């Protein structure tokens, strides 16, 4: 479905990513993990057209998408929930959700409220006054409003209490099964590898490990570097 091949990208004259290969299949949850500054957000930005792809290719549903505008890429069915959520803090939850529907113009919010019932209780509250976890739910729900076939979530659990993270993470398999594949970046490597089927480990702009998430979770290198084991 999403296929990244030998992608390189960076900012100005600085190259940040080298020869990235990554695939996300239909109904799949894929995790991208690695230390701060490894290039995870940069890879997500290159996929969604926020920064140019220098070489290599990005295809989605068999179509080359690199070089297209962010709007074109969203229209093809990819939603991006950026790090920091980027909600409109002064707008209500309902307004934030409805803004997510600019692609489909279908502003019915029932399907996302069903997924995140807590949002349903707060539709008239301004987004900026909610807790971090509620804001993250709102940001994911806004991304889902465009009925994407792939949602990309950067730093899913950053700054959130573990119990809130669990609440969000447990929704992900249902989202994937209902037709929206997920590519997620998370500092909480344990949670990410537990929920994902496939995972990639990125260090200093290079992919150093990839495979079944369960295998990576059991890999001594991952346990030592990311899970505080050993
Ligand atoms: N807008 C930017 N302009 C220039 N360099 C950037 C920018 N954003 C990130 N970088 C650099 O790119 C590298 C990778 O950053 P990033 O993709 O944010 O890593 P991660 O998301 O894995 O923490 C870092 O060295 C960072 O300083
Ligand atoms: Mg980042």
Task: Describe this structure as you would to a colleague.
It is a single chain. This protein has 230 residues and is of the alpha/beta class. It folds into two domains: 155 residues, Rossmann fold (3-Layer(aba) Sandwich), CATH 3.40.50; 62 residues, no CATH class. It contains eleven helices and ten strands. The strands form two sheets. It has a six-stranded mixed sheet, sandwiched between helices. The chain has a four-stranded antiparallel sheet with strand order 2-1-4-5, with helices on one face. The radius of gyration is 17 Å and the shape is globular. The termini are far apart. Bound molecules: adenosine-5'-diphosphate and magnesium ion (MG).
The CATH class designation of the largest domain is Alpha Beta
> What's the helix-strand series?
EEEHEEHEHHHHEHHEHEEHH
- Number of DSSP strand runs: 10
How much is the radius of gyration in Å?
A: 17 Å
What form results from the Cα inertia axes? globular
CATH topology description of the largest domain: Rossmann fold
| Percentage of residues assigned to helices | 25-40%
CATH homologous superfamily grouping of the largest domain:
P-loop containing nucleotide triphosphate hydrolases
| Second-tier CATH architecture of the largest domain | 3-Layer(aba) Sandwich
Total domains, how many? 2
- The CA-CA distance between the termini, in Å, is 37 Å
Helix/strand/pairing class, anyone?
alpha/beta
């Amino acid at each position: 479905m999403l296929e990244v091949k030998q992608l390189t990208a960076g900012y100005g004259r600085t190259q940040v990513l080298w020869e990235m290969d990554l695939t996300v299949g239909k109904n799949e949850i894929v995790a991208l993990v690695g230390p701060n500054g490894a290039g995870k957000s940069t890879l997500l930005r290159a996929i969604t057209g926020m920064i140019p792809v220098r070489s290599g290719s990005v295809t989605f549903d068999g179509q080359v998408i690199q070089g297209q505008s962010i709007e074109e890429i969203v229209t093809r069915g990819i939603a991006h929930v950026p790090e920091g959520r980027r909600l409109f803090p002064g707008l209500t939850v309902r307004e934030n959700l409805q803004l997510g529907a600019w692609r489909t113009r279908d502003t019915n919010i029932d399907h996302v409220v069903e997924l995140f019932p807590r949002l349903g209780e707060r539709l008239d509250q301004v987004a900026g006054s909610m807790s971090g976890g509620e804001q993250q739910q709102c940001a994911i729900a806004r991304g889902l409003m465009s009925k994407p076939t792939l949602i990309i979530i950067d730093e899913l659990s950053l700054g959130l209490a573990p119990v809130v993270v669990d609440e969000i993470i447990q929704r992900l398999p249902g989202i994937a099964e209902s037709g929206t594949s997920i590519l997620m970046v998370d500092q909480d490597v344990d949670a990410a590898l537990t929920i994902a089927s496939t995972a990639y480990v990125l260090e200093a702009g290079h992919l150093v490990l990839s495979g079944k998430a369960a295998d990576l979770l059991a890999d001594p290198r991952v346990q030592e570097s990311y899970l505080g084991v050993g």
